[in-house]
Amino acid sequence: MSHSIWQVLQSGQKYAAIWPHHAVVAAMTETRVVPAVKFAAHWMPGVAVVNFLVQWQWLGEALMPQAVVSSLFLLSLPIQGWFWLGRRALSKLDPRLTHWYLELAQKLQVQPRSKPTRMDLARLLKKALQELPPDEH
Fold first, then answer.
1. Are 123 and 134 in contact (CB under 8 A)?
2. pLDDT of residue 9
């Protein structure tokens, strides 16, 4: 299934928004990546502007292209994070996570999807953390 870059970026933003912050998912990569991407999305635009202005002030107009390129790189960091999260969100679950997904769907009495993605798991996890007692996650 092919997705456009725009769809992947939107999926990454949605995935970051719904990913649960809980000890149950602490070992998963997303638990470290989502806060980093949110941090980058919040601070990198300001850092890029300061980076550009400092280089322009100290190095002058002769090195303006380097200042622009380095600022554009800083601005691209959150986009790269959302792209990675989007690709991850749209990927199919491995067998171990599929088993966990099916267990949670059964406990929540929800109809599981035939080919679940990581986005489906994140949605189900968020619902399970809200509805199920702590010993049943």
1. no
2. 97
